[in-house]
Design a protein that fits this description.
Blueprint lengths: L7 E2 L4 E6 L2 E6 L1 H7 L2 E5 L6 E2 L4 E7 L3 E5 L4 E6 L9 H4 L8 E5 L11 H7 L3
Length: 126
């Protein structure tokens, strides 16, 4: 299982890559493995802002449907709409082409609430 060291993680299995004030969000390799084959991603077309901890969409897999929760608050600056046609990319490349949304952070102090790779591994028993 892959756990990039340069990312922040949530207890709900989202990851966040920070580049300046921009944060790229996806679900972890662990989460995609637990979900099974991802078959559908649902993110509102008019999503403009997210608040840390709030649902920003759902991910549907063969086994279940799960909410995706924003790790931080901010303006949504991009949505990976290619996942509409190819949701399976989340299974094959969760930290690359399987990214889900990009956020312009409005409260960088929220990063302090996220897990580093060591804490995330402990959370999932690795």
């Amino acid at each position: 299982m892959n756990f990039p060291e340069n990312l922040k993680y949530t207890a709900d299995h989202e990851w966040l890559k920070i580049e300046g004030k921009k944060g790229t969000v996806g679900i972890t390799d662990h989460a995609q493995g637990e979900l099974g084959d991802v078959v559908y991603i649902d993110i509102a077309d008019d999503i403009a802002f997210v608040k840390a901890g709030d649902t920003f969409g759902t991910i549907e897999a063969v086994k279940t449907v799960a909410d995706m929760l924003a790790p931080v608050s901010g303006k949504v600056i991009d949505v990976n709409r290619s996942l509409n046609d190819h949701p399976e990319v989340i299974n094959s490349d969760p930290y690359g082409e399987g990214w889900i949304i990009e956020i312009e952070l409005t409260n960088p102090s929220e990063l302090d609430e996220l897990l580093d790779v060591k804490a995330y591994k402990e959370l999932i028993g690795q």
